[in-house]
Design goal:
Radius of gyration: 16 Å
CATH topology: Metallo-beta-lactamase, Chain A
Largest sheet: 7 strands, mixed
Helix content: 10-25%
Strand content: 25-35%
Bound molecules: nickel (II) ion, manganese (II) ion
Structural class: alpha/beta
């Protein structure tokens, strides 16, 4: 069984593992970089990193259509059910839980978080996903912070880091993040959705290869890679 990771554009990722599909931050409607649509994606679980519209995205609509459980910080989980999501699983930063598809641990992120209606969304998180065949870390929206080296002790096979700058780490800090996380492979995200966060991902990948011990994985929206090389 080999898990596959598909970049859906912006921070949105689909993880296919053992016949299940887990979506992270499925912002598709209104996402100019989206490679698929909310009425088409499969989902058994949806993990939401924080409350911003470009991450909550289509979570509630997809959950209603597919019956997928919404996994997020407690405040977002409660909100998702109040909006019509059929089920949710609330967690918080530092906590892990074993689901049928693998173990989800929410990690702290340095970022703000509020829901589309302005209500409190808890703290922003990253997602450490331990699957039967390897470990995926999606840093989601965050600044660089030194505790990334602690997250890296999980032994990350594939990390996804933002490089878009302005709202999150830019290319330089993302290189530092890779040095702290020490993943085997790393994929950039949260870039080039809009001109404000346009970046040259191929150039960043060359820096990863030259300046870190990780191998770069540069995808376009809609492209996939294995969790393991
Ligand atoms: Ni955000
Ligand atoms: Mn964002």
């Amino acid at each position: 069984m080999r898990s596959r990771i598909t970049w859906l554009g912006h921070g949105a990722v689909a993880v296919e593992t053992a016949g299940r599909t887990i979506l992270i931050d499925p912002f598709l409607t209104g996402n100019p970089a989206a490679s698929t649509t909310a009425d088409r994606v499969r989902a058994d679980a949806i993990i939401v990193s924080h409350g911003h519209g470009d991450h909550i995205g289509d979570t509630v609509d997809i959950a209603r259509r597919t019956g997928a459980v919404v996994i997020a910080v407690h405040e977002i989980a409660v909100w998702a059910e109040s909006q019509g999501a059929p089920s949710s699983h609330g967690m918080n930063a530092g906590g892990a839980h074993r689901f049928e598809f693998g173990t989800v641990k929410l990690t702290p992120a340095v970022h703000s978080s509020s829901l589309p209606d302005g209500s409190y969304a808890g703290i922003a998180c990253g997602v450490l996903l331990t699957l039967p065949d390897g470990v995926l870390f999606h840093a989601c929206d965050t600044a660089l912070f030194s505790d990334m080296q602690l997250i890296g002790r999980a032994g990350i096979d594939l990390a996804i880091v933002p490089i878009g700058d302005n709202y999150t780490m830019g290319p330089d800090d993302a290189i530092e993040a890779v040095k702290l996380l020490k993943p085997k492979r790393v994929m950039p995200a949260h870039h080039s959705t809009w001109p404000l966060i346009a970046q040259d991902a191929d150039a960043w990948g060359r820096r990863v290869a030259a300046e870190t011990t990780a191998q770069p994985v540069i995808l376009k929206p809609g492209e996939s890679c294995g969790l393991m090389a």
